[in-house]
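ok new one. same drill as before - structure tokens go in, u give me an amino acid for every spot. 418 of them this time. try not to just spam alanines like last time pls lmao
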């Protein structure tokens, strides 16, 4: 079934607007409209019952102008080439806006991992790594977790690559378990980055997170961590949701009590009835709150529901949760959006820290990792805010302009070969 909103076309539309604000000619940035490499692979897997199923997988390298390509791998039934291309392009922008020396990449397999046993999932992962092996490596392209992929899966990736090389190569992937070269602070990094951006936005507006009413769509790694950290800073989390639906409480939800339940059962549907009302994901997006954190999948806020969004501020935990048409509507209504390529960049920042530790065969303390993340996010936020103010533009345009300056500048310095 074709997508209603093509995420790669969305990316190109935003890119064009940012380039126009910077006064760039088409020749300056046209290369960023095309991925450097796109690999599609077939993955035959023997299932537990003896049947053979063939899955489709992708690895897209969007840009290596500023360094090795970097980007996660997602397992989802709706994965397709346009989605992976868009995610890879957003990674290029994301790495540039926080000024870490990476380009953008992304991978994905079209599969519902909940339908597979652990053994089937491991065989699928190892087959995928074997098929994309020529593209990846610690100096070339470094995968990481994304939707429905875990530190354990990253460990399988590291092991498969290492077995092919004949020696341990922890730097081939980030987001690994600590025991095989992962970094302290990595699992919470994306949600922590979202929280940092929300706090910095409130400070710019003369407010604090204390008492702010927040709704979080998506209780995966990003949303659950952001909800917990914002709750810890005094925010009132009034609504949360996952794929099964959401819950709402005007007086605020007991996030510390709910997280263990969700971690154990992976769904809010099995949550016993309590002092809250059940709502749909669509209702969560239109809750009367100060801050909305869409942390699920792309295109959840579109032209059809953007007029009903009542949040004053949106901090994008997911990649591409707002379509360009919806972005225009929200901007016209005065809703401030901290864009994905800034707000959820905490994960790739700490992935970079993990990679550096692997290359150095060294380990940093968690407090040091979190402090470095805070500094990196704060510096990027200040640059984006200043550029948006200078150009009288949205924070999304500020982030894209900041990233474009770096990527285009690097490409000009390197030139086009041959």
């Amino acid at each position: 079934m074709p997508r209603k909103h093509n995420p790669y076309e969305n990316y190109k539309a935003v890119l064009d607007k940012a380039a126009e604000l910077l006064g760039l000619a088409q020749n300056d940035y046209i290369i960023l409209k095309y991925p450097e490499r796109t690999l599609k692979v077939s993955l035959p897997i023997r299932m537990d019952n003896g049947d053979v199923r063939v899955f489709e997988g992708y690895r897209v390298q969007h840009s290596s102008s500023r360094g090795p390509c970097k980007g996660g791998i997602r397992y989802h039934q709706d994965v397709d080439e346009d989605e992976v291309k868009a995610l890879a392009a957003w990674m290029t922008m994301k790495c540039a806006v926080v000024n870490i020396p990476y380009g953008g990449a992304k991978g994905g397999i079209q599969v519902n991992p909940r339908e597979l046993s652990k053994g089937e999932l491991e065989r699928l992962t190892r087959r995928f790594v074997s098929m994309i092996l020529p593209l990846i490596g610690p100096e070339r392209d470094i995968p990481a977790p994304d939707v429905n992929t875990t530190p354990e899966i990253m460990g399988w990736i590291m092991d498969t690559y290492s077995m092919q090389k004949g020696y341990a190569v922890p730097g081939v992937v980030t987001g690994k378990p600590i025991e095989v070269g992962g970094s302290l602070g990595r699992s919470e990094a994306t949600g922590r980055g979202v929280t940092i951006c929300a706090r910095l936005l409130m400070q710019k507006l003369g407010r604090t997170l204390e008492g702010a009413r927040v709704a979080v769509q998506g209780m995966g790694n990003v949303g659950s961590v952001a909800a917990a950290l914002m709750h810890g800073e005094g925010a009132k989390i009034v609504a949360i949701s996952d794929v099964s639906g959401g819950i709402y409480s005007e007086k605020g939800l007991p996030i510390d009590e709910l997280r263990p339940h969700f971690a154990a059962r992976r769904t809010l549907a099995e949550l016993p009835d309590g002092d809250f009302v059940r709502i749909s994901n669509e209702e969560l997006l239109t809750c009367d709150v100060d801050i909305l954190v869409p942390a699920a999948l792309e295109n959840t806020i579109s032209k059809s529901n953007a007029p009903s969004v009542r949040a004053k501020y949106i901090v994008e935990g997911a990649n591409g949760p707002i379509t360009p048409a919806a972005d225009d509507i929200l901007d016209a209504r005065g809703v401030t959006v901290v864009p994905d390529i800034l707000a959820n960049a905490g994960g790739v920042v700490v992935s970079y820290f993990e990679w550096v530790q692997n290359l150095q065969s060294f380990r940093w303390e968690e407090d040091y990792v979190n402090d470095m993340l805070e500094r990196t996010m704060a510096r990027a936020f200040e640059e984006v805010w200043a550029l948006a103010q200078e150009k009288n533009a949205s924070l999304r345009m500020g982030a894209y302009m900041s990233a474009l300056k770096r990527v285009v500048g690097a490409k000009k310095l390197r030139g086009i070969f041959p």
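The CA atoms of residues 133 and 240 lie 39 Å apart. and btw The chain has a mean pLDDT of 95.
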